[in-house]
Every structure is written in structure tokens, then in C-alpha cells.
Amino acid sequence: MNLDQFTPIIERIRANAATRERDRTLPHDDVRALAETGFGALRLPAGEGGRGISLAGFFALLIHLGAADSNLPQIWRNHIAFVEDRLQPAPAGRNGHWRKVIASGAVVGGAWSERGTTFDNPNTHLSPDGLLTGTKYYSTGSIFADWISVAAKQGDDHVIAVVNATAPGVEVVDDWSGIGQRTTGSGTARFTGVEVDDRGVFPFLDRAPYQEAVYQLVHLATLAGTARAARDDLVEAVRNRTRAYKHGLGETAREDAQVLAVVGKVAALAYAAEATVLSAARSLDPVADLAIAGEDDLATPIHRATIAVYEAQGAVTELVLQATTLLYDALSSSALDESTLLDRHWRNARTITSHNPRIYKDRIVGNWHVNATPPSLGFDRAREAAS
């Protein structure tokens, strides 16, 4: 599938990424440019304004975007999951409505997590007359969005409420203070008596059954892009370095076999990360196709595909953290200068890997292989609460 229309945008994003990082400039124009070029609708069928791209094809593009600026894939993470939800066959009327919204170029953010509460008992509530009130954190993408997907309770039921980002009572603040992914807008979202249309209220269980794997794959694609960017920056730095250590093996860094070996190692790590992500994405494609077609008996294939994604998480985490640390071995103390911004690759990777920590996924994978225990999917606590 030809996706050349995104190349100029991604190259512009790449050219300005370091400046945005240094100045903490949110990439509003870049998000809008991607949306206007159809990025957010790529997974929709061609007959509904999309391109019908596979998950593997989409995640390959996402890696390319992440190599330009790792903040951009994460900004789109909630939108990507929302699209998968709306591709499902039910509820047909409301999902069809939102597919039209997505095809128009709208961007959807997300606001699910809260500080100081559990998922089972959020402080965000949707009243019987459709008014949403509550405060969220980690509201990634919402500051760029036209619509925001909000996790809430309506009475005893867990729901997703989709609100207009410009509606009265909506406030999104750029107060994310993490060490990395600084321009994702992953901060606070406040909702004060916000009106929610009936078409924007979904039972929490009305989501793509493979959604959890999609969420994790976005992080993994972001990491693979980060490793590729670290490799590219390292190659450029070695090419341009004129000084050499007196005990080195060459007159310049680019002639030093030990330095070149480090570059080769970082390149191999980046390659392995990307290949692992794409392999996991390919394992999810047939599951997604069956779910979208209305197939119900998907528990076993979803479990297997989810385990593949979790295995990829364990591998990619190690690969990318190693690559973004090892690159300094091929450089000198001048590479530590803040102006190089080489540290952003490790900071961004460390931030992404701290979401949905790998230690839990490693345990789930081990339990699957040894005891045939299926992974917990789709916030099982919500399923239990709804049963």
C-alpha cells in the first residue's frame, strides 16, 4: 500500500523534533497535518473514507513516525484504540456514526486513569441525565483532540463517554512532568458537568476484544522508532566526530573498529526491536479481522496473539533500553552536553517502558507457557463487576 502522502509530514516532524524537545513545544500542527492527510482513518474500510490498512502495515508506519519523534505515536495511542473499537460490528448504529467522524479527520484523545483511585471505583461519573464530572490524569492526546474518550461510572455500570473537547466544562492542562515523552500532553483533564450525547456513551465492555494488545503494540512501535532514531543520531555523530582517543584504533572515530562495532551493535538492537514489533502485529491481524467480521469464538486466538505481544514487550524493552544506553560508548564526553539531546532517546524509552510494566507481562507469559493460564484481558475486573 502506497503511503507516500505521509513522507513530507514525517520528514518535517523529524527535522523539528529536537527543537520541540528543547523548548517543550507541543506538536499541534503536526498532529493536525497527519489528521488532515488521513492518518487517523487508515484502518477504516476504503468504502468508508479509509484505506483498510492491516495492523502490521499500520504499525510499520507508526514505527517510522516514532523514529521521527517518539511523542507522536503515543499522542495517537488512544485514537488508534478508539478506531479499533468502532470497527466492531456492534453497536452498529453508533459505531457507524463514529466511523464517519473519524473519516472526517477528527482526532480522539483519551482520559481513563485517575490519581488516588482504583479502576473499579473512579471519581468520574456520568449522571442519569448525561452530565460528566471528574478529573483524569495521563490524558494522552487529549490536548490535541477533537473528542475525548473518558472512562466513567454511570450508576453501577462502567462506561466510556465520548465528549467534545471544546464543550463547556472541559479543561485539558499540559502539566505532564515525566522525564520523557514531554510533548505528549499526558497531563490533567477536568470535566465539570459536560453534556454527553447518547451516541457517545458505550458500555465499557463494548470494545475490541483485542484492544489491550493494540494499546501495548503502540508502545512497542514507539520504542522501536526510538531505537531507530538513536541509531541514526549515533551514525551521524560518529561520521562528524573529528577527534579520536589516543588509544583508539583509527585516526578518526569513523575509522575506529571498536567504535564501528558499537554502531553495529546499536543498529542490530534497533533492527531486532522493529522485527519483533512487526511479528507481534502480524499475529494480531487475523484475530482483528475475525472480530471485525463478527466472529464470537475468539478466546483462544486472542490469548495466543496477546501472549505474542507480551513476549514482544519483554524483548523490545531490553533491546531499546540497551540501544539507547550503549550509543554513548561510541562517543566522547562532548556527547553528554545537553545541547546534543542524545539523552532524550533513553528518557523517552524509559518513560514508555514504565507504562504497563514488563514484570507483570513476564509473569503472565511464564504462567501461560507452564500452566496454560490465559492472560487477563480487557480489564477483567470491569467484566466481573458487570456480571
- CATH homologous superfamily of one domain - what is it? Butyryl-CoA Dehydrogenase, subunit A, domain 3
Query: What gross morphology would you assign?
Result: globular
- Reading off the top of the CATH hierarchy, the class of one domain is best stated as Mainly Alpha
Helicity, as a percent range? 40-55%
Give a summary of the structure in a few sentences.
It comes from Paractinoplanes rishiriensis. With 387 residues, this protein is of the alpha+beta class. Helices cover 50% and strands 11% of the residues.
Question: In words, what does this structure look like?
Answer:
This protein is of the alpha+beta class and 387 residues long. It has a domain at 211-386: Butyryl-CoA Dehydrogenase, subunit A, domain 3 (Up-down Bundle). 50% of the residues lie in helices and 11% in strands. The protein has 12 helices and 8 strands. The chain has helices spanning 7-23, 28-36, 55-68, 71-75, 77-86, 92-103, 211-240, 257-292, 299-326, 343-353, 358-371, 380-386, and strands at residues 108-111, 125-126, 131-136, 147-154, 157-164, 170-173, 188-195, 201-203. The strands form 2 sheets. The chain has a 4-stranded mixed β-sheet. The longest helix has 36 residues, at 257-292. The protein starts with 6 loop residues before the first helix and ends with a helix. 42% of the residues are buried. Residues 381-387 have low confidence and may be disordered. It holds the Pfam family Acyl-CoA_dh_2. One of its GO terms (biological process) is fatty acid beta-oxidation using acyl-CoA dehydrogenase. This is Acyl-CoA dehydrogenase.
